[in-house]
Amino acid sequence: MAGHSKFKNIMYRKGAQDKKRSSLFSKFSKEITVAAKMGGSDVESNPRLRLAIATAKSQSMPKDNIARAIAKAEGGDAENYDEMVYEGYGPGGVGLIVEALTDNRNRTASDVRTIFNKAGGNLGESGSVGFMFERVGEITYPADITGADAMFETALEAGAMDVESDDDGHAIYTEATDLHAVMSAMTASLGADPESAKLIYKPKEPPSLDQDAAEKLLRLLDALDDNDDVQTVHGNYDIPDDVMAALDSE
Q: What's the domain range around 41?
């Protein structure tokens, strides 16, 4: 696996999902509040909010936390956040796209640039790495919900573009504008909500990294993940299984 999905696996591998659960919930709350503030608190008429809640639930975020995030938007006392997208290069020539929600653009831009520089990367201009990705919707389900063939048929009937299934689970890809409709159709067909449903930057031709570059990249990804303003990091890279195994053994 590569790029955005590999980043998720790395986070689980290092146990960061448990260690950083409070930070993770804070980021989910911010996205839910922004979504509710922009499009209203009715999940049926606000696709962004529905997707944000689905993702938060998939990571076991308590219902009370979700309700508080929505209430914050409804009460009118929520902070004003700007949505920022940063592009840059990491170790090994990897292209990275960083999505952030911030109440201080200068602070976040400075923080992200410093993280890149310290890790041996460099922050670029808008569009500098965007050509390495395509903007699509991604819906994920656990491997045990159904077989690969059945998932493929269900996804295509729901309007998806493609499906990738392996031992880790199922990843369904959609046109960016079709994400909400496909998710709704699949939820009805499978009788279960997905683990996550979101817009992503899908890598086109990810370069394969050696152990040194992979180790440096992981440090950069960890540092970005630790920043409170950073919501999501998308990477155009592939870490071979033998390199990942070597990193696991350290």
A: 3-74
